[in-house]
Amino acid sequence: MPIIQALAYIVAETTDAARWQQYGEQTLGAMVMPRADGGAGVKIDRRDARIHVVAGDADRYVASGWEVADDAAFDTALQALAAAGVAAREEGGLATARGFRRLAVFADPDGNRHELVTGYAGDDTPFVSPIGVNGFVTGKFGMGHTVLPAPAHFDATLKLFTEVFGMGLSDVFNFQPGPDAPVMRIYFLHGASGRHHSLALAEMPSPSGCVHAMLEVDQLTDVGKAYDRREKAEVKLMATLGEHENDRMTSFYMATPGNFALEYGWGGIEVDPATWQTTQTKQVSIWGHDFSVGFR
């Protein structure tokens, strides 16, 4: 079984936390808690934050937080990283800031920053959407998923997550955006939770630090309502409504204040990590998901 359970959270840097508060509350339907240091926490379940917004000099994606089951798994992961020649350091102060007992920072071969965590120690209070979103699919499945750029060292980065952390390969997609364009690999990886993918690696650059992150609601109606809210708020649409072939997620994509895209979806399938056989996607979606709108 994979050492990694699921994606615990993501971290975004911001030059203006008020933009995240407006976006989080009025477009996502999340609770947003301003912080004294100029950041904010975007809350979508009983945990205090699934998106940690930190004050900085840019608007970008900073890090992915990966949760393991306990101290034994955490120590095993640190040992596996050391054996693979990957430097990792524990940071107690940052662990407290993220709401965990233990946290270690490391980078993958493509330079993406990761935070390994265990022992949630933050608040445990009910989620009540300020605009009536019924709820988000989290719990054992974690926050959702993240798609990270791996344009230079795709194979080495893939090896880190499959061999060091034991993540399973849910699906592979050899994406060719045009008849004369080079093929770009997008591989989808699952942890122990059973979410179809908690991580995907994309063989393409992304200046914001992330291709997209995903939040899943537990009612299809809330996807449609969010689509309408996005339009009313004039948030940039990055892909129209559609249903993915690989995880069967019905979703749309929109821009975030962090300059990366966010997929807002419903209905993703669950996999059994012990028995799932890797599939190969032939097309991005069964219907919809026109990504050309993001380039207009």
Largest sheet data: 10 strands, mixed
- Sheet with most strands: strand arrangement: 17-10-11-12-9-13-16-15-14-18
Question: Helix tally?
Answer: 5
User: Helicity, in percent?
Assistant: 10-25%
- Proportion of residues in extended strands: 35-45%
Mean pLDDT reading: 97
Query: For the CA atoms, what is the radius of gyration?
Result: 18 Å
Taken in chain order, the helices and strands follow as: EHEEEEHEHEEEHEEEEHEEEEE
Kindly report how far apart the N and C termini lie: 43 Å
Low-confidence stretches: none
Shape, principal axes of CA atoms: globular
Description:
The protein is α+β, with helices and mostly antiparallel strands and 296 residues long. The protein is 19% helix and 36% strand. It has 5 helices and 18 strands. The strands form 2 sheets. A 10-stranded mixed beta sheet has the order 17-10-11-12-9-13-16-15-14-18. It is globular. 47% of the residues are buried. The mean pLDDT is 97.
Which features does this protein show?
eight-stranded mixed sheet, globular, 18 strands, 296 residues, alpha+beta, single chain
What would a concise description of this structure say?
The protein is α+β, with helices and mostly antiparallel strands and 296 residues long. Helix content is 19%, strand content 36%. It has a 10-stranded mixed sheet with strand order 17-10-11-12-9-13-16-15-14-18.
Layout: helices, strands, pairs:
Elements: E1 4-14, H1 17-28, E2 31-34, E3 40-43, E4 51-55, E5 60-68, H2 71-83, E6 88-90, H3 92-98, E7 100-107, E8 113-120, E9 145-149, H4 154-164, E10 168-175, E11 184-190, E12 199-202, E13 212-216, H5 220-233, E14 237-244, E15 250-255, E16 261-266, E17 279-281, E18 285-288
Parallel strand pairs: 1-4, 5-8, 9-12, 10-17, 13-16
Antiparallel strand pairs: 1-5, 2-3, 3-4, 6-7, 7-8, 9-13, 10-11, 11-12, 14-15, 14-18, 15-16
